[in-house]
Amino acid sequence: MAHHDHTAGAHEEHHEGMGAKQIWSVFFVLLALTALEFLIALGFVHHWQILAKGMFVNIIYILLTLVKAYYIVAFFMHLKFEKSSFIVCSTIVFIFIAYFIVLMLTEGSYLGGALQDHAIYPNK
């Protein structure tokens, strides 16, 4: 049988910088961001009607979701502790995928309106 080194030093070297304290701090940041999203959705938009549904609220949701995605990818998927070349490659791929999605939605929206010779829901 092969001998595996299960000492604390070997474990800490593999997960550099991710102690229990940091994991809990990231958890509470994600919890606070999620609570803020619920406060905006249920409080400001629905209950108190301070904000109207629309582009501004959607941009807020998208920004909060991107911040949460950064925390999840950086800390729980350990991307923050990788070499910078891997981070750059992964980021470039993500940017191209997002760009492709935006292009497809734009093209689909154009084609959906341009190819309709008749009303989608005609009045009878």
Report what the structure shows.
This protein folds into two domains: about 20-80; about 85-115. The longest helix is centred in the last third of the chain and has 31 residues, at about 85-115. Helices cover about 70% and strands about 0% of the residues. It is built from four helices and no strands. It is mainly alpha-helical. This is Cytochrome C oxidase subunit IV family protein. Pfam families: COX4_pro.
Task: Describe what is shown at a glance.
This protein has 124 residues and is an all-alpha fold. The chain has helices spanning 8-14, 20-47, 55-76, 84-114. The chain is flat.
The figure for the number of domains is 2
Distance between the termini: 79 Å
Number of strands: 0
Order of helices and strands: HHHH
User: What kind of sheet is the major sheet?
Assistant: none
Question: How much strand content do the residues show?
Answer: under 5%
Percent in helix: over 70%
By oligomeric state, this entry counts as: single chain
Radius of gyration (Å):
23 Å
**How large is the count of helical segments?**
4
- Overall structural class, as computed from helix and strand content, comes to mainly alpha
Tell me, what's the shape? Answer: flat
The residue-averaged pLDDT reads: 83
Q: Catalogue the unreliable spans.
A: none
Secondary structure topology:
Blueprint: H1 8-14, H2 20-47, H3 55-76, H4 84-114
Structural descriptors:
124 residues, 2 domains, 4 helices, 0% strand, cell membrane, Cyt_c_oxidase_su4_prok, membrane, transmembrane helix
